[in-house]
Design brief:
Layout (H helix, E strand, L loop, with lengths): L4 H4 L8 H22 L3 E3 L10 E5 L6 H8 L4 E6 L6 H9 L3 E3 L6 H11 L6 E4 L10 E2 L5 H9 L2 E8 L14 E4 L9 H16 L2 E2 L10
Parallel strand pairs: 1-8, 2-5, 2-7, 3-4, 3-5, 6-9
Antiparallel strand pairs: 7-8
Helix pairs in contact: 2-3, 6-7
C-alpha cells in the first residue's frame, strides 16, 4: 500500500516560486487560451476578490476543467485537494504535485489537511486554498450534498469564504466558440463559530450566482 504522507501534508515552502510560475504558465496562459477560444469564458465579480490571501475559494463543481480554470482566473495561485488515489498514477502524480495539489482521504478530514491549509496561508507567494464544498462533480441544476468541512477550515484558519458560481464546464467541446462558460464571483463570507451559518450563506450565494436550486441539507427543502 502506498504511503501518501508526503502528498497529504505540505509545508509553506512547498508553494515556492517554481510551482508558482508553473501554475501561472499552465493555467493563466494555456488553459485561458482554450477557455476563451473554445468556451467563450466570461468572468464576473473579480472586484470581489480580497486583496490579501486570507480567503478560501469555494466553488460548485461540474467538470475536471474547473480547478485549472479557477487557477487561471484568480490573481492568487490556488492549491486544491485531490483524492489520494490520483497520486498512484505516475504522470498524474507529477502533474498535480507541480500544480500545488495535495492528497486527501475523502472518508475523513485528517489533521494533515488542516495543517496543510494553514501552511498554504503562510506561503511566501500568497497562495490560497481552493475547495469544492460538494465534494465531487455534480450535475448542473442543483446545489446539494454540501459538506461542512470548508466552513470548519475557514474558522480554523480565520479565512473568509469566497463563493464562486460556475456554469457551463460540464459540456465538453473542442470546436472553437461552441461552448459557453460563465464564472461569477460572489461577496466574501466571514468565517463563523457555527459552520451551518457559513454553509447556508454559501449555498444561497451559489444559487444566485448560477441560477441552480439550492437544496438545504438542514431542512431538505429548496430555497429561493
Amino acid at each position: 500500500m502506498k504511503d501518501y504522507k508526503k502528498f497529504t501534508q505540505r509545508k509553506a515552502s512547498f508553494y515556492n516560486i517554481w510551482r508558482t510560475i508553473f501554475q501561472w504558465i499552465i493555467c493563466r496562459i494555456f488553459y485561458m487560451i482554450r477557455l476563451k477560444v473554445v468556451y467563450r469564458l466570461k468572468v464576473e465579480g473579480l472586484e470581489n476578490v480580497p486583496k490579501d490571501n486570507d480567503y478560501i475559494v469555494c466553488a460548485n463543481h461540474l467538470s475536471t476543467l474547473d480547478p485549472p480554470m479557477l487557477a487561471g482566473i484568480f490573481p492568487n495561485r490556488i492549491s486544491f485537494m485531490a483524492k489520494q488515489e490520483l497520486f498512484d498514477i505516475p504522470f498524474i502524480c507529477w502533474w498535480i504535485d507541480w500544480m500545488g495539489t495535495f492528497a486527501v482521504n475523502r472518508e475523513s478530514l485528517a489533521p494533515s489537511t488542516i495543517k496543510t491549509v494553514m501552511e498554504i496561508k503562510k506561503s511566501r507567494w500568497k497562495w490560497v486554498f481552493g475547495i469544492f464544498p460538494q465534494g465531487t462533480r455534480q450535475k448542473p441544476g442543483e446545489i446539494s450534498d454540501i459538506t461542512k468541512g470548508f466552513a470548519g477550515l475557514a474558522k480554523i484558519t480565520k479565512c473568509s469564504v469566497l463563493p464562486v458560481g460556475i456554469v457551463g464546464t460540464e459540456k465538453a467541446t473542442h470546436i472553437p466558440f461552441s461552448g459557453k462558460v460563465t464564472v461569477r464571483i460572489g461577496k466574501p463570507i466571514p468565517y463563523e463559530k457555527d459552520p451551518d451559518i457559513v454553509v447556508e450563506k454559501w449555498g444561497k450565494q451559489i444559487e444566485e450566482l448560477t441560477g441552480y436550486k439550492y437544496i438545504s441539507d438542514k431542512s431538505g427543502v429548496t430555497n429561493g
